[in-house]
TrEMBL record:
This is ABC-2 type transport system ATP-binding protein. Residues 6-237 form the ABC transporter domain. It comes from the Bacteria. Belongs to the ABC transporter superfamily. Keywords: ATP-binding, Nucleotide-binding, Transport. GO terms for molecular function: ATP binding; ATP hydrolysis activity. It comes from Mucilaginibacter yixingensis. InterPro entries: AAA+_ATPase, ABC_transporter-like_ATP-bd, P-loop_NTPase.
Amino acid sequence: MKDPIIQLKGLTKLYGAQKAVDHLDLDIYKGEIFGLLGPNGAGKTTTILMMLGLTEPAGGSALVCGYNATRNPLEVKRKVGYMPDSVGFYDHMSAAENLQYIGRLNGIPEAQLKGRVAETLEIVGLTSDSHKPTAAFSRGMKQRLGLADVLLKQPEVIILDEPTLGIDPAGVKEFLTLIKQLSRQQGLTVLLSSHHLHHVQQVCDRVGIFVEGKLLAAGNLEKLAAQLFGKAGYITAVTLEEPVAKPEPLTDIVKNLDGVEQIDVHEHEIDITCSRDMTPDLVRYLVKEGCNITRVNQKNYGLEDIYQKYFESAN
Ligand SMILES: Nc1ncnc2c1ncn2[C@@H]1O[C@H](COP(=O)(O)OP(=O)(O)OP(=O)(O)O)[C@@H](O)[C@H]1O
C-alpha cells in the first residue's frame, strides 16, 4: 500500500460547543483527485484550514507531505498550494503582473520569475489575456488565474475550496478538465471541496461525503454505491422483441446466475440488478437462450443517488 501524502487522524475542531469537524480520519494518496463533498456548513473549509495549519485543531493531527500541519505550517505551505473560495487580485494590474507579485512574495528568484509566470499562464490557458488588467476578467478567468497563482510555486498538493462556485457550465467544464490534466500529467495531488456533486463526479478519483463535521463515507463511486446499496450496485436493462412471460424458466435461470441479486420484468423489459457489471455475460446468456434483444441499457448508480441516500439517512 502506498503511503498517504495527507493523513488526518482523529482531527477535531470545536467552535464553542459545536463540533465543526468531528474525529476525522482520512488518507489521501499521491496523484489522486479527492473530492470533499458536503452541504454548506459541513466542515470542509475548517478541515482544509487545519490541513494548512491556519487554524488549530482541538484534537487529532493533520500530516501533510510528511509535516505536522499544526507544528510545521511553513513547511506545509511550501509544499501545498491553496486556493480559497474567493480569490482576490489587484484589479489595476495585469494577470502577469499579479503573478509576478505573488511569485516575489513566494521567494521565486528574479531570474526565473518571468519564465515561470509565462509558463504557468500557458498551463491555465491565459497567455493571450496575460497583459489585460484583471478587473476585466470574468469569474472563470479569475478562477484560472487563481489556479495559476497556486501552481506558480510548483506545489506537490493543491487544495481548492469550492473552485467552481459562480462559474458558468462551460467554464466549469474547462476548469475541471484542466485540473484532471494537471493531476495526470504532473502527478499533482488535488483536494477539491464542493457542494456540487456533478462537479465532483466529473473529476474526482475518490470522494468523501461530509455531513455535520463527520465523514460519512469515502471511496470511489463504485465502492460508495456498494456500501450504500448493499451488494447491488448495477442494473442491466434488457429489452426483448417479445414480451417476457412471468413466471417463466428464463427469469428463474437468470436469477440463479452468480452475481445476480434481483430480476424485475415489465412486459418487454427485464431489469437485472447485479453486484458487479454483468452486462456482457447477461447479453451472451440471453442470446444463447434464443432471446431477440432490441436494446441494452446499463444503469449504474451515480453520485446523485449516493448523495441523496446519505442526506436522507443523515436527516
Ligand atoms: N470562525 C468560526 N467561528 C464559529 N463558527 C464557525 C467558524 N468557522 C466555521 N464555523 C462553523 O463551523 C461549521 C463548519 O463550517 P465550514 O465553513 O468548515 O463548512 P463548509 O463545509 O466549508 O461550508 P461552506 O461551504 O458553507 O463554507 C459551520 O457550522 C460554521 O458555521
